[in-house]
Amino acid sequence: MSVTTINQDKPEEDFAPVMAQKWPGNFMQIAFFEMKKQRGLAIPLMAMNLVWFIKLAITTAFLGRLGDLQLAGGALGFTFANVTGFSVLSGLSNAMEPICGQAFGANNFKLLHKSLVMTTFLLLLTTLPVSVLWIHVDKILTFFGQERDIALTARKYLVYLLPDLVITSFLCPLKAYLTSQSLTVPVMLSSTVAVALHVPINILLMKAKGLEGVSMAVWISDLIVVVLLTVYIVRLEIKKGGEWEEGGWFEQGTKDWISLLKLCGPCCLTTCLEWWCYEILVLLAGWLPNARQAVGVLAIVLNFDYLVYSVMLSLATSASIRVSNELGANQPGLAYQSACVSLAVSSITGCIGGAVLVASRGTWGPLFSNNKGIISSVKKMILLMALIEVVNFPLAVSGGIVRGTARPWLGMYANLGGFYLLALPLCWALAFKVHLGLGGLLAGFFVGMVGCLILLLVFVARIDWVKEAGKAQLRTSHLEEDQEAVPVSKD
Predict the structure, then answer these.
(1) What is d(CA 56, CA 78) in angstroms, rounded to the nearest whole number?
(2) At what angle do helices 332-359 and 465-476 cross, to 10 degrees?
(3) DSSP type of residue 11
(4) d(CA 359, CA 257)
(5) Taking Cα atoms as reference points, which of 157, 175, 293 lies closest to residue 213?
(6) pLDDT at position 303
(7) Biological process GO annotation list (predicted)?
(8) Strands (E) located in 241-295
(9) How far apart are CA 430 and CA 375, in angstroms?
């Protein structure tokens, strides 16, 4: 069963030559051309993500200067914020990638505009129940056995972090709006400016308000990015002229909301399932016999993973944007090629990332601890984490590909099956039943990731690119402008 779409600009017969030769010409020539396109996307995104992790490290450092209680409470509060708030908002905003990416490829600027407004409004609504959770975080944490003084400190930190929920509701859609149009440099530059100001802001507010000041510095830095991106977008749209006058900002209809919500749910669950799995892994480490050392070792190892993740996330976003742009432009062959090159690059980059971890295993541990037992354990666990990274890169990019085709539920199914039906039960069995300890947790996690990757690769291999291009034309068609996209026969 295949669906073909007839468009006034691209008739049905145009599909045939594009897909008849899925990989035309010289492989290296095509791969080089595609990598050149993705380089302009990925490098600024990598820089932006690295800057974000630097901001997190700066915040943690200032919390540490306030004392052990503030560090523990602030870190616990931020973890709670990630699990219940930022992962949800980030996941919901991921729905903009396929919609805006395909809309940009189809030159449907009205859909771009209305998607930005709708997603922002949806995220603002989502902050209401999340805020209630944050305000009562002390009760939640003490219910699960956390010490009361740490729980109260976490609550204080989160209460002053509440404005960041509103700011993030604007920040995530603004970033997605620009990156879907391959405008990644402004996002990188604005993030860099904000992080450069993050240190002096922290110094001033920490002296004035202590823990509350460090918390406020987080959302003030994010607010700077929002202001800079908003100014840039307004100037960009005014400069375009026609697109700005086209409007569409507040012309949302029921079908628009249904289309967005259908993607928001799976995108949100895909992101949350992955983020939550890492937090559960840390929780399981806390139940091991030598819990303090196990959690410390895992935290040190995961810090390296977070740095590598900035590269991985950039490649996944680039793959999603390239695939969605080509499908929106009615070019299924180019979308297929983008997906293939993205997977090849991610596999090579994953091997490089794993090699970097192995090469650094002797120097990474001493940066965080002088304990010989922790350093020795870090050297062993990094070898397992290196294997995980080799798999994690193509896994993330595969998720970006299915997201670019506007089928994020495939990633959700893979994460649910790989992480929760395979990885976590296996982690528990190896760590607590076979008594392999922390090594068992990471070994189980690795097997689960392999299972998740296999599922996603099967999903990607079964994609009918012509059919997905047809769906993209229907999704982004200018019906109000009489640019018809009529479904033809179903074989």
Answers:
(1) 10
(2) 110
(3) -
(4) 49
(5) 157
(6) 75
(7) xenobiotic detoxification by transmembrane export across the plasma membrane
(8) none
(9) 23
Name which of 72-86, 162-176, 321-335 the model is least confident about.
Answer: 72-86
Closest CA to 154 of 240, 95, 261, 79: 79
pTM of the model: 0.81
* Chain centroid offset of residue 39 CA: 18
In a 13 Å sphere around the CA of 339, the CA atoms on its Cβ side amount to 31
- In this predicted model, which residue has the larger pLDDT, 145 or 170? 170
Query: Percent of the chain at pLDDT above 70?
Result: 88
Nearest to 95 by CA among 260, 322, 273, 277: 260
As a residue count, the chain comes to: 491
Helix, strand, coil content of the chain in percent (nearest 5): 85, 0, 15
Q: How far apart are alpha carbons 285 and 295 in whole angstroms?
A: 6
pLDDT digits (tens, 9 = 90+) for 277-304: 888 887 788 788 877 778 778 878 887 8
Name the β-bridge partners of 3. 490
Does the pLDDT of residue 392 top 90, yes or no? yes
The answer to whether the CB of 74 falls within 8 A of the CB of 157 is yes
Contact criterion met (CB below 8 Å) for 83 and 275: yes
Of 300, 290, 467, nearest in space to 381 by CA: 300
pLDDT of residue 119: 93
CB-CB contact of 398 with 418 (8 Å):
no
Which residues lie across from 486 on neighbouring strands? 6
The CA distance from 299 to 303, in Å, is: 6
Quick one: which of 236, 45, 74, 230 has its CA closest to 158?
74
Residue 332, token pair as written in the block: 């299924």
Mean pLDDT of the chain: 83
How far apart are the C-alpha atoms of 325 and 330, rounded to whole Å? 9
Please, which residues have CB within 8 angstroms of residue 230's CB and are 6 or more apart in sequence? Answer: 170, 174
The CA distance from 431 to 439, in Å, is 7
CB 345 within 8 A of CB 359: no
H/E stretch holding 7:
strand 3-7
By C-alpha distance, which of 60, 49, 89, 82 is closest to 215? 60
Structure tokens at 89: 């908002």
Across the strands, what pairs with 490? 3
- Highest-confidence range of 250-259, 261-270, 365-374, 443-452, by mean pLDDT? 443-452
Can you say whether residue 288 is alpha, beta or left, with left for phi > 0 and alpha for psi between -120 and 50 degrees? beta
